[in-house]
Structure formats: C-alpha cells, structure tokens
C-alpha cells in the first residue's frame, strides 16, 4: 500500500547519525545518501528503501505532525528495547517506554520516541513473548 515514508529534519547530519543508530537495532540500514540533495533513504538490505529522512524541499522549517507517527517493525521485544534505549542515549524524547500494549492485541509490544525534530517514532513487535 505504501511506497515510502518521508520525515523532515532541520539538521540532516544530526538526523542521519540518529537514524543510522536506532534503525540498526531493527536491522534497517542506510541504503542511499545524498547530502548534496539533502536526503537519505533507509530499508532492509537488498530491498527498496521505505523510509526517507530529508531537509524539506520547499526550504522551510521541518515540523512534526500532531497525531502522526511512524511504526517500524521489530523482530523481537529485545529489538524494541534496544531501539528505545539507543534513541534515548542519542537525545530522543521518551513518548512511551517499551512494554505490552494489550489494547492493540494480546502480543503487541512497542515503544515510542520523538526524534530531535519532533517526529514520533515507534518500534513494535507482534510476536508472543
């Protein structure tokens, strides 16, 4: 259903350091980087990119959407924990500690962060404990 998701940033170098580190915990890597055009693309090795981080093309300030977040699939609950801990160590804001979210379904496990630009990110795992 989706081609890709793009998140804006006001500081590309800081954003790339942040995303390189937290996405690595989920097995996601930077597949393409174009600092001269102000973006980078992330995905699983051997696949097409699904997440882009960029300076806004209109050259205005990047802002986060209220009620908007990007949920990234984790292979395990430990990967969710590592994503969250890594993000916090890099200056992200905690928006929900790792843990079960039974109101979604009985095996749902997730954690939420806000990056330096205010974008809300989630890592989640749907597998039983």
Overall description:
It is a single chain. This protein is α/β, with parallel strands linked by helices. It has one domain (5-55, 68-125): 2,3-Dihydroxybiphenyl 1,2-Dioxygenase, domain 1 (Roll), CATH 3.10.180. It contains two helices and eight strands; from the N terminus they run βαββββαβββ. It has a four-stranded mixed sheet, covered by helices on one side. Strand 2 (29-34) and strand 3 form a beta hairpin. Helix 1 (12-24) packs antiparallel against helix 2 (77-89). The longest helix has 13 residues, at 12-24. The radius of gyration is 14 Å and the shape is globular.
Q: What would you say about this model in short?
A:
By secondary structure, the chain is an alpha/beta fold. The protein has helices at 12-24, 77-89, and strands at residues 5-8, 29-34, 39-43, 51-54, 69-73, 93-100, 109-114, 120-125.
């Amino acid at each position: 259903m989706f081609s890709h998701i793009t998140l804006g940033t006001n500081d590309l170098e800081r954003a790339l350091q942040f995303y390189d580190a937290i996405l690595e915990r989920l097995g996601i890597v930077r597949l393409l980087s174009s600092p001269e055009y102000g973006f980078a693309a992330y995905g699983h090795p051997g696949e097409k990119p699904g997440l882009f981080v960029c300076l806004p093309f209109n050259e205005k300030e990047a802002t986060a959407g209220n009620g908007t977040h990007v949920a990234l699939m984790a292979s395990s609950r430990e990967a969710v924990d590592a994503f969250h801990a890594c993000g916090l160590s890099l200056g992200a804001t905690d928006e929900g500690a790792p843990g079960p979210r039974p109101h979604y379904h009985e095996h749902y496990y997730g954690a939420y962060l806000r990056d330096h630009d205010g974008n809300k990110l989630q890592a989640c795992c749907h597998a039983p404990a």
